Amino acid sequence: MANTTQTTKLTHAGALKMLDAAVKKAEAMGVPQCIAIVDEGCNLLAFSRMDGSKVLSIDTATAKARTSASSKAPTGKTPPEYELKMAIATGGKFANLKGGLPVIVGGVCVGGIGVGSGTGDQDVECAAAALAAIGAQTSF
Fold it and tell me: Which of 2, 13, 17, 98 is most buried (most C-beta within 10 Å)?
């Protein structure tokens, strides 16, 4: 049995490319956003708070990114009866609001992106633009 394994990682350069694409999409939509990108371990790689975005979205965007990376699934799909339990159990670090997408490349989840300050659908649209910029999976 092997003691180590090679893994695919989201790089800082990849995270910045995603961030740039999400910002451009938000600008085109006229919706300033908070955008957080984390690696597979839920560690922050890149973040931007656009001028005019909501202050509370700093935390929710980051929570969405962590949640999608950890669950390897989009946010907003957890049954409502688990939302409060999830928030309490993680000290608010995870959220079930729409706008978080896993970053899946070649079938491997390498992180998550969370976007917040628009409607849930606007947040998802910006996150999907970021995924497309690096060739990550965009349909879930």
Answer: 98
Other C-beta atoms lying within 10 Å of the C-beta of residue 55: 9
What span, in angstroms and rounded, lies between the C-alpha atoms of 88 and 99? 20
- Determine contact, residues 29/115, Cβ cutoff 8 Å: no
Taking the C-alpha atoms of residue 101 and residue 111, their distance in angstroms, rounded to an integer, is: 9
Q: Which helix (H) or strand (E) holds 49?
A: strand 44-49
The per-residue DSSP string of 91-135 comes to TT-----S-EEEEEETTEEEEEEEEESS-HHHHHHHHHHHHHHTT
Note the pLDDT tens digit of each residue in 23-67.
Answer: 999 999 999 999 999 999 999 999 999 999 999 999 999 999 999
Q: Which residues pair with 108 in a beta bridge?
A: 105
Please, what is the Cα angle at 62 between 56 and 64, to 5 degrees? 100
